[in-house]
């Protein structure tokens, strides 16, 4: 059984730490919380760690349980939705030095960095968690169904893109049967915006530049100051650029420290922006990926343009 090693590792451990990736999204958070719900049902001690700020839009998933500082020793470390160990941020050295580690992930670019790796190309990591729990006849309820559903919704843009097979819709149909509040999840993950975020969108659009089929936007530290926002408020802004009819590749550079940028890529059709992200040490999916770049913003954009040409 493909899930046996992971299930045995989880069952054998009593104190477990679960890690999500930096710039967290609904899939990594939902995957972690779902695992925690499962483990706590069997009286396991579970702690959750994220080396980044978590936006309030994800409060709907119950993310107040996440911590930043490691204060204990654990029998098992689990990374979810992380294609490589650097995605867990400052915990990476601790993770790699631990004798018992698991990675559960759906990215094709996964580097198999854990001792046990459960990697399947699905639309979300929560789909893998769902299938693993189904394999042991786990008794689902509203709590776990909600976070599993949220991961699918988050990584497919509300069931709008990705490898949306009939299997995905069957899983969604089962999950929502547990009285998931679909409207609430959709509002928080896809529609909810603050006034500051709307003003940030204004700055992002004012920076928009289009060169043939390539679009770029830049959000600076000054933009955050002017709108009373933070880099966690940027999610989704790059979609405004990729939705332009003439654009096939879009990039949004978000300055989180002076001359340090969190970069989001979006692509259309046959263009695989995960390959673009890999050029710069990042990763992700065919249509959505990311990385971090350092230096002058104009030079960063020129580097990206050159990499796009080689795709």
Cα-atom radius of gyration = 19 Å
Structural domain count: 2
Structural class: alpha/beta
Cα end-to-end separation: 37 Å
Order of helices and strands: HEHEEEHEEHHHHHEEHHEEHEEH
Helix content: 25-40%
Largest sheet features: 6 strands, parallel
Numbering strands along the chain, what is their spatial order in the largest sheet?
3-2-1-4-5-6
Please tell me the CATH architecture of the largest domain by its name.
Answer: Alpha-Beta Complex
Portion of residues in beta strands equals 15-25%
Estimate the global geometry from the Cα principal axes: globular
- The CATH topology of the largest domain turns out to be inorganic pyrophosphatase (n-terminal core)
On the 0 to 100 scale, the average pLDDT is 94
What would you say about this model in short?
The chain has 311 residues and is of the alpha/beta class. The protein has helices spanning 4-12, 26-41, 92-97, 125-135, 142-155, 166-176, 182-191, 195-206, 221-227, 238-242, 273-279, 297-309; strands spanning 15-19, 45-49, 66-67, 76-80, 101-105, 116-119, 209-211, 214-219, 249-257, 260-267, 283-284, 288-294.
Can you walk me through this structure?
This protein is an alpha/beta fold and 311 residues long. The chain has two domains: 4-189, Alpha-Beta Complex (inorganic pyrophosphatase (n-terminal core)), CATH 3.90.1640; 195-309, Diaminopimelate Epimerase, Chain A, domain 1. The protein has twelve helices and twelve strands. It has helices at residues 4-12, 26-41, 92-97, 125-135, 142-155, 166-176, 182-191, 195-206, 221-227, 238-242, 273-279, 297-309; strands spanning 15-19, 45-49, 66-67, 76-80, 101-105, 116-119, 209-211, 214-219, 249-257, 260-267, 283-284, 288-294. Strands 3-2-1-4-5-6 form a six-stranded parallel beta sheet. It has a six-stranded mixed beta sheet with strand order 7-8-9-10-12-11. α2 (26-41) packs parallel to α4. The longest helix is centred in the N-terminal third of the chain and has 16 residues, at 26-41. The mean pLDDT is 94.
């Amino acid at each position: 059984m493909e899930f046996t090693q992971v299930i045995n590792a989880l069952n054998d451990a009593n104190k477990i730490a679960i890690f999500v990736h930096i710039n967290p999204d609904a899939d990594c958070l939902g995957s972690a919380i779902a695992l925690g719900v499962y483990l706590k049902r069997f009286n396991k001690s579970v702690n959750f760690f994220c080396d980044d700020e978590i936006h309030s839009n994800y409060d709907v998933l119950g993310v107040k349980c996440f911590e930043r500082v490691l204060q204990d020793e654990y029998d098992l470390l689990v990374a979810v939705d992380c294609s490589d160990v650097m995605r867990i941020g400052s915990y990476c050295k601790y993770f790699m030095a631990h004798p018992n580690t698991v990675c559960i992930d759906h990215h094709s670019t996964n580097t198999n960095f854990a001792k046990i790796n459960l990697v399947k190309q699905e639309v979300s990591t929560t789909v893998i968690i769902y299938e693993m729990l189904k394999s042991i006849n786990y008794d689902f309820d509203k709590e776990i169904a909600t976070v599993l559903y949220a991961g699918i919704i988050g990584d497919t843009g509300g069931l709008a893109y990705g490898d949306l097979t009939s299997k995905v819709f069957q899983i969604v149909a089962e999950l929502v049967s547990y009285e998931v509040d679909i409207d609430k999840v959709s509002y928080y993950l896809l529609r909810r915006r603050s006034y500051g975020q709307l003003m940030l969108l204004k700055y992002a659009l004012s920076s928009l530049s289009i060169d043939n089929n390539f679009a770029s936007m830049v959000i600076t530290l000054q933009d955050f100051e002017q709108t009373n926002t933070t880099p966690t408020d940027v999610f989704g802004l790059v979609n405004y650029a990729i939705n332009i009819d003439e654009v096939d590749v879009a990039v949004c550079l978000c300055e989180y420290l002076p001359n340090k940028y969190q970069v989001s890529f979006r692509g259309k059709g046959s263009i695989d922006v995960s390959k673009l992200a890999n050029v710069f040490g990042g990763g992700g999916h065919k249509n959505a990926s990311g990385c971090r770049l350092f230096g002058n913003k104009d030079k960063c954009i020129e580097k990206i343009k050159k990499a796009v040409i080689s795709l």
